């Protein structure tokens, strides 16, 4: 049995490293159609066992043309990072160790790695001492975690225990959101019982910044249980809400301030850029991803809460069979996350942070933003290209003369295999969004991509 494991893991490592070595030369996008992939991977379930080594080799061969080279330095789609070497290796070990990180008793090292990584993150980002945290699949679940804590707290202060009594008959909660909020906010709120029709939506400016004066106006009336959702890094433009002004409005109203910092919160690690998120430390909760700018393999999201009591009250659970283990009050993740049985995501975050250190994280963020500025300057010289708005951090938004041209140019670049980017719609018009979030991206990658757009623009 051990020999079989040795063989299959060794072969898997070789397949993986061989694939990584192709990143500079392979097309960034997939090279196969949906129907072809279904044919390559499909067929009837085998009647009997298939040797593990053959399964892995067949899977790799069948899947290879359908893989998107997300780890490539020329992948600029959505806001997706690549895995740092130490984080990828730690993620492999996480799979092999196979710890159930829900309980300390099921993985003491996993629990302590989360403790250490959580404290490192709190210190790195300058969040309040004593803040609680949760390692979750992504920012969507981080919002769910934080907003559950918010719901508990604002109702507790109104004399209602939502975990016992539910929402039927509860005092109404006012939820204030931006017109340019991310869709994951709506879905998290929906899962917590807040319908989108009941949200108080305040306007945003052309860059996507929430109108802080409108927030102040909404909160000026008689105090009611209130949650305000602000944003550090709008998904298209990278713009930041005025978090200090919004915090000023929330404080006298007793409103819970939640910050969606999916990628933008990482500017707090950069001395050159942290001013963009000034006031973030005054929020009550924060949700962000490690699989974006920290370049931890998918999936890895993080929730922080300045108030551990409502965080734990909203998420914790007990049962007779849940054995607590170890001396010194070990931390059980089931008290802080919506998950029960769960992957030990803390190992990957720990490895990424330790491999980069404080300066390395700052350098990664700064380097990506510098590449974004270089992109914007280069795109401005591409025939017919218009860069939309300012480059705030790592997002570049641009378009061509009309929607058809924008769509065609984007398609031509993707089909060339030189780069992969995602489209979007801003102000009712099609645009292209370029996000530099990858530790691998080099000046050469930037120039290759710009050259691909120059060719596409005149074709």
From TrEMBL:
Transmembrane segments: none
Keywords on record: Aminotransferase, Decarboxylase, Lyase, Pyridoxal phosphate, Transferase
InterPro entries to which the protein is assigned, alphabetical: Aromatic_deC, PyrdxlP-dep_de-COase, PyrdxlP-dep_Trfase, PyrdxlP-dep_Trfase_major, PyrdxlP-dep_Trfase_small
GO BP of this protein: carboxylic acid metabolic process
Superkingdom of the source species: Bacteria
GO MF, one example: transaminase activity
Residues with N6-(pyridoxal phosphate)lysine modification: 292
Family: Belongs to the group II decarboxylase family.
Name this protein carries in UniProt: Aspartate aminotransferase family protein
Species this protein is from: Actinoplanes aureus
Phylogenetic lineage: Bacteria, Bacillati, Actinomycetota, Actinomycetes, Micromonosporales
């Amino acid at each position: 049995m051990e020999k079989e494991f040795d063989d299959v893991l060794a072969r898997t490592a070789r397949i993986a490293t061989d694939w990584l070595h192709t990143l500079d030369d392979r097309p960034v996008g997939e090279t196969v159609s949906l129907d072809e992939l279904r044919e390559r991977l499909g067929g009837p379930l085998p009647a009997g066992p298939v040797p593990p080594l053959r399964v892995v080799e067949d899977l790799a061969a069948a899947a290879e043309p359908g893989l998107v080279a997300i780890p490539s330095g020329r992948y600029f789609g959505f806001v997706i990072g690549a895995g740092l070497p130490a984080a990828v290796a730690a993620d492999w070990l996480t799979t092999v160790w196979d710890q159930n990180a829900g309980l300390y008793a099921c993985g003491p090292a996993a629990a302590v790695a989360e403790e250490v990584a959580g404290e490192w993150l709190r210190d790195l980002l300058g969040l309040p001492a004593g803040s609680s945290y949760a390692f979750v699949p992504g920012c969507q679940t981080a919002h769910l975690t934080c907003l559950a804590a918010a719901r508990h707290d604002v109702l507790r202060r109104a004399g209602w225990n939502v975990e016992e009594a539910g929402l039927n008959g509860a005092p109404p909660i006012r939820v204030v959101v931006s017109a340019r909020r991310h869709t994951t906010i709506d879905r998290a709120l929906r899962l917590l019982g807040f319908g989108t029709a009941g949200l108080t939506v305040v306007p945003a400016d052309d860059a996507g910044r929430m109108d802080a004066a409108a927030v102040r106006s909404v909160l000026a009336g008689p105090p009611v249980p209130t949650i305000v959702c602000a944003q550090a890094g709008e998904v298209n433009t990278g713009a930041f809400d005025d978090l200090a002004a919004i915090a000023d409005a929330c404080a006298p109203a007793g409103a819970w301030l939640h910050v969606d910092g999916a990628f933008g919160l990482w500017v707090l690690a950069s001395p050159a850029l942290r001013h963009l998120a000034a006031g973030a430390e005054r929020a009550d909760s924060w949700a962000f991803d490690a699989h974006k700018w920290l370049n931890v393999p998918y999936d890895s999201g993080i929730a922080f809460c300045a108030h551990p009591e409502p965080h734990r009250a909203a998420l914790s659970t007990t049962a007779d069979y849940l054995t607590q283990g170890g001396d010194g009050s070990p931390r059980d993740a089931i008290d802080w996350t919506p998950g029960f049985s769960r992957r030990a995501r803390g190992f990957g975050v720990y490895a990424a942070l330790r491999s980069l250190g404080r300066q390395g994280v700052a350098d990664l963020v700064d380097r990506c933003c510098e590449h974004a500025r270089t992109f914007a300057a280069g795109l401005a010289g591409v025939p017919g290209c218009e860069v939309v708005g300012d480059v705030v951090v790592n997002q570049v938004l641009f378009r061509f003369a009309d929607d058809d041209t924008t769509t065609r140019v984007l398609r031509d670049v993707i089909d060339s295999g030189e780069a992969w980017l995602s489209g979007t719609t801003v102000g009712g018009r099609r645009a292209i969004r370029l996000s530099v979030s990858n530790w691998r991206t080099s000046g050469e990658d930037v120039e290759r991509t710009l050259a691909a757009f120059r060719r596409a623009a005149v074709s």
